[in-house]
Amino acid sequence: MPAALGIFLSKVLAAFMAFISVAVNPFARTAELPKAPDDFTPVLRFAVASDVHIHVDDKTDDSQPERIRLAQFINKAYELAESSDTGYTKLDAVCFAGDVADQGLDEEAEVFINICKENVRPGTQLLNVLGNHDQFKGADTALTRFEKIFDAPLNYDVVINGFHLIGVSYSTQKDYRADGVKEWLDGKIKAAVAEDATKPVFVFQHPHPFATVYGSVNWSDLTTATVYNKYSQVVVFSGHSHYPINDPRSLWQGSYTSIGTGTLSYFEMEKDMIAGQFPDGHEQAAQFRIVEVDAEGNTRVLNYDLISDSFFGLDYYLTDFNKKSKFTYTSRNMMRLDSNPVFADGAAVNATTNDDGKLCLSFPAAEDHFIVHDYKITVTNSFGIPVWSGSVMSHYYLNNYGDTEVLCVDEFTPDAGSYKVTVRAQNAYGGVSGAISGTLTVA
Question: Which of 210, 248, 297, 393 has the fewest CB atoms inside 10 Å of its own CB, making it the most exposed?
């Protein structure tokens, strides 16, 4: 994709998401993001992950990354709870937003639940819903089979310390319209809101509700959004896209709140980038959320990365669930709070070719208020005529990547001659930096 076209389309998508936020919440305002007070004291804490993708290519292979990360996720959630300085050290629930099995096999589900049983302690509820991969084998019986293996319902409404956690699984039609699932969900949320309209209602499903979080255009569901739009108290957690959760668009507010859950298996990205759907380092994916709720329902959402063993990205603080006019994490507000990325003074591009003759670049990473999402590259010949351009994903999804971007472009093999290589950084909301450049001479 030409760089100019990539910039244009990214801005169109950002504007579209902002329009959706305004359309569903015309009272949205521009405001600074709230922070949890120093005396924030939870009465509820749960951990959320998704897309574990346990597979059984080798049923005895305990070195499988997904199996290791699953156990690490649960134990790290306990460690974070027990080391909390909030005065509340309990982990009340471990929640999954679907695709715990890679091919929907009973053996995969059994491996998953056995790892959970070995690591989830008494006093912590284990909550699961069904995803699309969980139905790859025998979709018509997946719900029944997995409920038997898990010994728990996959459509549930549990109350923990006064707060509803509702899980909704794909029906046999791989959506939420069959078997009265959508109507069941609506009734459960309506009843929860009737109990206390000021409290959040936490919901877990596999695909993102359409046109909400990052990834929800391509990896989404249209049916549940018609339910959620009626209840500003809904906070829905979803996966399916495998998109990273340190992108600020992974939490969205409009008529309700939608939160992406990342993956414990592998990242996926936009297919129109040069690196493609599975960019460099996509296997290094182990991200999850820690959610803490105080007695009034104020909710803090923290991101954790198992690969770097650290918190990362934004700390979110959600309040006023019955007053969507006070929502601050709208696309419109986040876009206004962001600013164009910048390169450090004197930053330049080092351009070379590798042994295969492909263009390779290194340059200091740009900085942004949130993230640098991608880089727009243009190559011009000695006459100033563009000979190649494209968009390359930054490595922001790798929390320990470093401050220098290094990448090779397999799509371009320059002929002999002199070239100028120009790079611009783009953030998550379409803001573009000034250009840095370098020269390339090919003999």
Answer: 210
CA distances from 360 to 236, 406, 407 (A): 41, 8, 6
Shared-domain flag, residues 144 and 287: yes
pLDDT tens digit sequence for 375-392: 999 999 999 999 999 999
Residue 377 and residue 300 in one domain = no
Amino acid at 317: Y
Place of tokens 């994903």: 393
For residue 97, the domain's CATH number is: 3.60.21.10
**Angle between helix 65-82 and helix 106-119 axes, rounded to 10 deg:** 30
Q: State the sign of the Cα–Cα–Cα–Cα dihedral 402, 369, 244, 318.
A: positive
* Average pLDDT over all residues of the chain: 90
| CA R_g for the chain | 23
Question: In 3D, which of 167, 159, 189 has the Cα closest to residue 92?
Answer: 159
Residues 161, 43: contact at Cβ < 8 Å? Answer: yes
How many other CB atoms are found less than 10 A from the CB of residue 68?
15
Cβ neighbours of residue 49 closer than 8 Å, sequence gap 6 or more: 73, 95, 96, 97, 261, 262, 263, 264, 287, 288, 289
Q: Residue 427: its pLDDT value, please?
A: 97
Q: What is the CATH number of the domain that holds 421?
A: 2.60.40.10
